[in-house]
Automatic annotation (TrEMBL), chains A, B:
<feature type="DNA-binding region" description="H-T-H motif">
    <location>
        <begin position="41"/>
        <end position="60"/>
    </location>
</feature>
<keyword id="KW-0238">DNA-binding</keyword>
<dbReference type="Pfam" id="PF00440">
    <property type="entry name" value="TetR_N"/>
</dbReference>
<dbReference type="InterPro" id="IPR001647">
    <property type="entry name" value="HTH_TetR"/>
</dbReference>
<dbReference type="InterPro" id="IPR009057">
    <property type="entry name" value="Homeodomain-like_sf"/>
</dbReference>
<dbReference type="InterPro" id="IPR050109">
    <property type="entry name" value="HTH-type_TetR-like_transc_reg"/>
</dbReference>
<dbReference type="InterPro" id="IPR041347">
    <property type="entry name" value="MftR_C"/>
</dbReference>
<keyword id="KW-0804">Transcription</keyword>
<protein>
    <submittedName>
        <fullName>TetR/AcrR family transcriptional regulator</fullName>
    </submittedName>
</protein>
<keyword id="KW-0805">Transcription regulation</keyword>
<dbReference type="Pfam" id="PF17754">
    <property type="entry name" value="TetR_C_14"/>
</dbReference>
<feature type="domain" description="HTH tetR-type">
    <location>
        <begin position="18"/>
        <end position="78"/>
    </location>
</feature>
Length: 200, 200
DNA sequence: CCAGCTTATGACACCCCGTGTCATTATGTA
DNA sequence: TACATAATGACACGGGGTGTCATAAGCTGG
């Protein structure tokens, strides 16, 4: 999600990228941990990364993106898990179970959980970062919604279900991050367990 | 919620407030509607309200507070509805129904729905305003959580339930605001209907 | 090897949000 | 009338985010 203009997509001509966005994000995370989030300015990060402030903004749309950017893979993984199974005819077994499993799969795709935990803890501490959750999780919400509607869940119910799902799973991630348990799956399972499609 | 320092709380001495915060907020809403949210600077609002920019900030903590401030009464009303009935012994009837009714009562306490609809539509259009929902609804979340735990809902479940509740009801408000139906209650009912305390 | 193209880069300037300070003014109470 | 309290607004400042522009770096075709 680091705003990467055209990183891996075949670029036939032009000057290639010379800045390692992931390395810069990692550096920023380190600086945030050392000096604090709001005590570290974008100029500080740029200076430390030996690049210009404007170049920093070219790779990360905002300061918050330096933190939230790393969550891209998780969302992408659960998106993939949600997109794969085609909808069967009629009302299939349990749509909630499908959502749950996709989210678990997405979580399992995270390379290093320790970094993610640090990221989430940093987010939890700062309202400014916290509030970005709505937009950062937007694609996941959209993905879940199409999953539900494709399986016959009526429109308004699907919307509310997705909104509730995002809220609950985000809370689950936060609870996991606050503790020391290695596996986030139980938290996510419990969060999804709070939902019901039947309208009670 | 307009940051009011000491508006109605008996102030024995000192110069009384001479700025009508509600009027300023209404003016700001009008300017936002006319010129657009980000096209209207705090200086514009202050100039139009015939006050200084700093004085504006003394009444509203942020630009977003000019919009979100008006939601205070709703949250306060549902808080009151949630606080009134004392928990009975053992597992009482239906905690979700209690939550649902409190939210409906809160919605019914809104003086003029038209203004609220405009406000929510404005919020829907601007990610910056949208993202404030998390913090703005924080008190409501906390209130619902204590309601649930006081009625025997175990801790982690209560957390997830509240997170889901906030997400779903906010989505319900947004759906209501996007349409023309006069009563938000059906939307809210449907949103709460997506939850379940039983863990499926 | 050179010419020309594309694109990243960084310097500069700018707007605006939000905050801190401070002198001034207005309103109450003793 | 003196005093305390607090609102007001002027000024300055840090910092986020954006636009512009000249320059440098790499690729590709001749």
């Amino acid at each position: 999600m680091p705003t990467e203009a055209l990183k891996n997509t075949a670029r036939p001509t032009g000057r290639p990228v010379s800045i390692d966005a992931d390395a810069v994000a990692a550096l920023a995370l380190r600086l945030f941990a050392e000096r604090g989030y709001e005590q570290t300015s974008m100029e500080d990060i740029a200076r430390e990364a030996r690049i210009g402030r404007k170049s920093l903004y070219r790779h990360f749309a905002s300061k918050a993106d330096l933190v939230w950017g790393g969550t891209g893979p998780v969302i992408e993984a659960s998106r993939h898990a949600l997109a794969s199974p085609p909808p069967a005819e009629g009302t299939d077994t349990d749509v909630l179970a499908g959502l749950r499993e996709a989210i678990i799969v997405g979580a399992a795709a995270i390379p290093d959980l320790a970094v993610t935990r640090g990221r989430l803890r940093l987010i939890a501490e700062h309202p400014d970062l916290m509030s970005r959750s709505y937009e950062s999780l937007g694609s996941q919400r959209e993905q879940a919604r199409s999953y539900l509607t494709a399986r016959g869940v009526p429109e308004p119910t699907a919307r509310y279900l997705c909104a509730a799902l995002i809220g609950a799973t985000f809370e689950a991630w936060m609870q996991w991050a606050a503790g020391d348990e290695p596996d986030p799956a139980p938290y996510l399972r419990a969060a999804v367990g709070v939902l019901s499609v039947g309208g009670r």
